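Batch 3, record 17
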Amino acid sequence: MALRPYAAAKRTLTVADKLMEINWGLVLLIVLIAIAGIAMLYSVAGGHFQPWALRQIGHFTLGLIVMLLAATIDIRMWMSLAYPAYGVALLLLIAVDVVGHVGLGAQRWISLGPLDLQPSELMKISLVLALSRYLHGKSVEEVSKPVPLAIGLAMIAVPAIFVFLQPNLGTTLIIVADGCSLLFLAGLSWWWIAPTLAAVAAAVPLAWRFWLHDYQKARVETFLNPEADSLGAGWNITQAKIAIGSGGVSGKGFLQGTQSRLNFLPEKQTDFIWTSFCEEFGFVGALALLILFAVVIFYGLQTAISARSQFGRLLAMGVILNFFFYIMINGAMVMGLIPVVGIPMPLLSYGGSAMLTVMFGFGLLMSVHIHRQVEIPRHSGGII
Amino acid sequence: MPLFDKKDKSRYATFTRRAAGMGGGMTAIFAILAGRLYQLQIRDGSQYMVEAEDNRISERLIVPPRGRILDRFGTELASNRRNYRVLLVSEQATEGVANALDNIGKVIFLTDQQKKKVMHDVAMNKKFVPVPVVENLSWEDFSRINLHLPYLPGIQPDVGETRDYPFGPQMVHVLGYVAAVSPEELKRDDDPLLSLPGYRIGKRGIEREYEENVRGTAGASRVEVNAYGRIIRELGKNPGTPGEDVWLTIDRQVQQVASEKLAGESAACVVMDVTNGDVIALASTPGFDPNLFNVGLTGEEWRGLTTNDHKPLLNKVMGGTYPPGSTFKPAVALAAIEAGIATPDYHVHCNGVFVFGGHQFHCWRKGGHGSLDVEGALQHSCDVFFYETARRVGIDRIAAAARMLGLGAATGIELPGERSGLVPSREWKQKTYHQSWQQGDTLSVGIGQGYVTATPLQLCVQAARIASGRAVLPRLVHSVGAKLVQRSEAPRLNFSDEALATVRSGMNKVMNDPGGTAYTWRIAQPGFEMAGKTGTAQVRVYSREEHARGITKDAHLDWKLRDHGLFIGFAPVDSPRYAIVSVVEHGAVGHPQVVAAHDIMLFCQQRDPARHPAAWPVTSAAAFQPEQSGRQSAIIPASYKAGG
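Prediction for the assembled complex:
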């Protein structure tokens, strides 16, 4: 990859340099996807900016600012902020149990003035930061040693348990997936990975038996046979499939989606926004959007591989995997491939917390990109 | 310290390798998502499109307005009024039907019985079918329901139509009534309207006989509904066809007078236009209120109707048969004249008793009437004359004359449940009793007793035929919608003018000659004079002991054992236009049937509905009787155009 000489030569970059270094193509891509989401929010509200589209524009604008700020902050600064961020997020997560109020049957919010903060969202990105920093200091051999590995696993497990207890199965899964992916990328030995996978496979029936809540079990049962109770719990999946399927090749057209506008879709503005998009824009539109997502992910991969610090690499990869897991779980869920889990579609679904964390993640990714030439010694703690 | 050491290099290599591997995995998962999209949207797309349409589009039946029933002057006898009602869609009652009913019960009054009925209806119907909870609500209650609607899931306020019979019991035997559809009717008729809960169809009378015409055909509206079943917009609409109005020949006012004059009696009365058979009035008392059937009778009300000894549910006009008694004598007289037996010189001497085959047949007047010709015999209703004459004429010729006068066969009036009465014959007796006809049987028939029976309607037809000399048949329905019920002019009867004139003259003397049996109740107003014939039908035969004890009059007996009083007549005498029959069960004492007939016929002539321009649709007027068409075509009520 051809590096711009001035950027490569300078140890420290000015803000202007950093802004020049931002991949504006990626920003454009993100804006495009977000506009698609806002358009859908406008559509599912029956062609109105209220109650969702206008506020989502606000969320996104705020997210863009957060993203650009995050991008321009030195990667070493992020490294030094990683542990404190993790600590704060963990404290907030615990606080949710105390002051959080009940929404959608699960305690997930903290009201911070006008913004409902979802600490589990914050936790995801903080975990990526903290784990990247931790693993930055570990060689391939060290990662697989019991004590460092146990510490890494504990960093994943503690927030995962709190999120799970909220209860929020979807986010728990993503936190665990994010964390384990980072361990894997840091070089965890297959001697650990293979038996763990086997153990997980064995644990699934036990989890079913003892850990899952009734509503979670109901979702899985519904998933396995949605038509059995097409007016009850299976309704969501059945109606989502009808919405997507009825879009056909070219869709029903913008503002013409009957399934969402007539309220046949549940949670149409959040988890099921993708179905509305598929209904109105058809296979062509949905595929185009998938490709946009794929391009963003490809850019993230490229950024990760080209970074010269292990922290940057892990951070970029963590961010992009987080993004990917959202898409995978939400997409598979609404298309009836996996049980219903409460996961929004990134950039498309309505919601301030999710939008801000996703955009913050992209900011970190861009920071990695801008500071890709920065080399950080293995035992460094960042800019101190 | 070098920035890069060997370990860094190795872990970078591991990272790159593994990240690339994950990239591959992510690509694979994107491919799966895209494949699933292909599967849903392209492979199965058309199927899901159908399901989405099914979701959003729902068909609703549009109930057509039921056709009205109107009298000859356009007065609404059966109409529709607004019915504010509350429906329940069990599928949408998210908190259960019982809870929904409790909630409505907090807003308007609901009895436990009503609640039970709704639970039953809900169980009998599909989940999405609206079931009526309460009907005929006051506007205040209806508004209250609408106000509380947001807290009443599954409840639908609805403005329907309900049948209204403004004249209640007076018209019920003509109109019938509407009531809920029975399971058998549902099986017979596959009209989707019948399956609607709360739908009502005609059960008796015109309502039943013309059900197909007044019902109309159901329309349908295709509506877009949201997930909660609420209608978002209408996509298409076939309004259906409203039911046709049925125009009767009845004059509501004559009908009212007839009903009032016979009120309190168990009686029947028909007034007919002798020229064409138009039924001006058709009353059977007591009646009952058809509006009750619409709302639903209580068990007690129903028992009251069925156990009443005046039989309010029976239309006695064509559902009751009676021995015609002396009202049959004109038929015997006609037969005798036509047979050449009763010539102008023909006389029979009555000494009060007629001896035949060792039996004594008494005349109603002890001591007898002396020598009488046909007219005198009719005037005095002499039994001995008609015993002797019937004996000479024979049952065959009497029966033939009676049939020609319309007895012994159903008249074909447009009402269900008509009975045909009986004109006996030799073959009939052989077939029924396996006995040969006896002359004694003929004697009984000669005075309208014995085997002969007739409905009041047939007796009215008899009077009309004697008056007009034509084979008129009664009809109630003039036109359906704008379509005239086609009828050809009645053919002349096969009686000579002289014979008819003699009988009419005899019937004239009954009322207008001081010696006539009904002289007391003659119509004295000039120009309105009525001819007629009274009759008494024995319910039982007085035994020898009763004769001995002096019980020979009805006044001595219980109501149920008294004789029936009958009367037939026509007016005006000089050029007959109206025929009348009135029959009062067990009413021979004081001749209430003649009193009523006098009042009704006088009122009818003074009003003269048959010569009054009627409000029938213009298309039918053109095809109607030529002498009337000129006058009738002028008037078409605005209400008909608007409502028809």
